[in-house]
Design brief:
The chain contains four helices and six strands. By secondary structure, it is α/β, with parallel strands linked by helices. It has one domain: Rossmann fold.
């Protein structure tokens, strides 16, 4: 199964790609939304796309809109990542990351 990871953060792409490869995915990594769209519209297209909400070129929501408007890509599962680098509160952090360690939020990017 093919997966696409589109994020301008190199650490994020490394962690995600390593995890997906361990699960047997064939992974392609790109670092901007325009490259992600090119990969999504190529053949063979990925079955899964994990894309950053905010990145250079097309952002994650725009990629989702384009995919949903393209009937030949309707099968594509998309996951949007949204994790701001600076959090205003622990509550915002936990909502964004969904990760709690030892009773406190862990959300460093």
């Amino acid at each position: 199964m093919r997966a696409l990871i589109a994020d301008d953060d190199r650490l994020t792409t490394t962690l995600l790609s390593d995890a997906l490869r361990r699960q047997g995915f064939e992974v392609t990594v790109v670092h901007d939304g325009n490259a992600a769209w090119e990969h999504i519209t190529s053949d063979p297209a990925p079955s899964l796309a994990i894309v950053d909400w905010m990145m250079p070129g097309l952002d994650g929501p725009e990629l989702c809109r384009r995919v949903r408007q393209e009937p030949s890509r309707a099968h594509l599962y998309m996951i949007l990542l949204n994790c701001a680098r600076v959090y205003a509160s622990a509550a915002a952090c936990s909502l964004c990351s969904g990760i709690w360690l030892n009773g406190s939020p862990s959300c460093r990017k």
